[in-house]
Amino acid sequence: MRTLFLSLVLLAHLSGKAQLMVGIDTISVRENNYCQKLPWAGGINAATFSNCDINYDGKNDLVIYDKLNNSSLGAFKCFENIGTTGQAKYKYRPDLTSKFPHIYNWALMHDYNGDSKSDLFVSVTGGIQVWKNIGNASTGLQFQMIYSILNTDYNPTGAPSISNIYSGPVGLPGIVDIDNDGDIDILTFSATGIFIEYHKNVRVEEGLPLDSLRFDLADGCWGKISESSCQVDLAQCPNRPAYDSIVAANQNKILHAGAALMCIDRDGDGDQDLIIGDISCNTIEYCQNDGTIANAIITDTTKLFPNYPNKASTTQLKFNNFPCTYYVDTDNDNVRELIGAPNAFGSENATSVWLYKNTSSTSTVNFQFVKNNFLQDEMIRSRASIATNFIRL
User: What is the DSSP string of 141-171?
Assistant: First the structure.
């Protein structure tokens, strides 16, 4: 027992960070007389959050992709939902990490083929790769790469111009059914930087099989906005051709380091509103879409979100740098909550997963702050907590 204690203290001293790659779940840990439920999950630093039924029991579990040790390489962490309806209660499943491919930069999970199993959309050089969830309750969690990189037709009304859907290594694309036709579409910042491209999935229109992903560039300036240096400007589409010409003449100049997009129909009107997180910012930018499904028009923005339209209803989401948001069900009630977390190192690593509960009883959303350490409050978070607060029971 003394040897075990000393080993853990040395491990904590050498690490000194939240990211502890310890896969031991047979030792109970107490902190301030509280027995932590997820002590050996290794902390959470710069993570993305997705729902996935990891054991195929019909419940929404949580899958976190967390970048490791200040690098672009990351690891998947699976949390099995063992709670009842309305209860956020999880069991850490380190045995499932090996079921995922080795991924760099970012990973998000969405069901693209309508089989009620979340598939993997991951970062590759210059774009997006897709892994299909082929597992089941008998065989367990399994993935198969279906698209090594997603392409789109940049000239759908003329001679085809097929190329990759650009998605940089730093930001996150918005992956959602934009036009409500039953298939997954993609929003992403253009390779030239500040404008958002809408890549429409034409699987339904072309009568393709459910497993198909076939995209056309439907809008090169979605929402009629531009975003740069923590500023969203409205009515910007006439400026895109001139801007692209400037970029072409200055290929070596970095014009947009990275931004994350999260789509959400906040007001329940059928079109997608937008939340933008930028690597150079410490707040997010909410963008209100008052256009239509076919023609998005952003008419209002705020950095105070989730305070919108009421500008003083809850705690503003704010981190040291690069806050990003995720729309997931965390408490087993089939109503999605909002999670805010940094997507870059240098932000808080003990209070960096902010949970907002959706308290609305209608199709709109009303996010209210719950805590700033969701899941983290059940984990060993610092060397002090290991060295002084664990007890073997």
Answer: S-EEEEESS-EEES-TTSS--EEE----SSS
CA distance 83 to 260: 30
Q: State how far the Cα of 63 lies from the Cα of 133, in Å rounded to an integer.
A: 13
Q: Helix-strand-coil percent breakdown of the chain, rounded to 5?
A: 10, 35, 55
Question: ω before 160 within 30° of 0 (cis)?
Answer: no
Instruction: Give me the helices (H) in 70-166, please.
Output: none
- Of 25-34, 106-115, 339-348, where does the model show the most confidence? 106-115
Secondary structure (3-state) at 11: helix
The H or E element containing residue 8 is helix 2-15
Q: How many CA atoms lie within 13 A of 20 on its CB side?
A: 30
Give me Rg for the CA atoms of the chain: 21
Cβ atoms of 180 and 293 within 8 Å: the answer is yes
Q: Which of the listed ranges 8-17, 19-28, 94-103 does the model predict with the highest average pLDDT?
A: 94-103
Rounded CA separation 41/22 (Å)? 7
Query: 250 pLDDT exceeds 70?
Result: no
Residues 6+ apart with CB under 8 A from 239: 226
Residue 176, phi then psi, degrees to nearest 5:
-165, 165
Q: Closest by alpha carbon to 286, among 270, 269, 309?
A: 309
For residue 127, how many other CB atoms are within 10 A of its CB? 21
- Tell me the average pLDDT of the chain: 87
Contacts 24+ apart (CB under 8 A), 94-103: 94/23, 94/25, 94/40, 94/41, 96/54, 96/141, 99/135, 99/140, 99/141, 99/142, 99/143, 100/76, 100/143, 101/131, 101/143, 101/145, 102/73, 103/65, 103/74, 103/76
Distance between CA 179 and CA 194 in Å, rounded?
Answer: 23
Question: What's this model's pTM, rounded to 2 decimal places?
Answer: 0.88
Side-chain half-sphere exposure of 85, counting CA atoms within 13 A:
3
Residue 374 · residue 354 · CB < 8 Å: yes
308 in helix, strand or coil? coil
Beta strand 298-302 with 323-328 is unpaired
Which pLDDT does position 6 carry in this prediction? 37
What percent of the chain shows pLDDT beyond 90? 71
Q: Which amino acid is at 353?
A: V
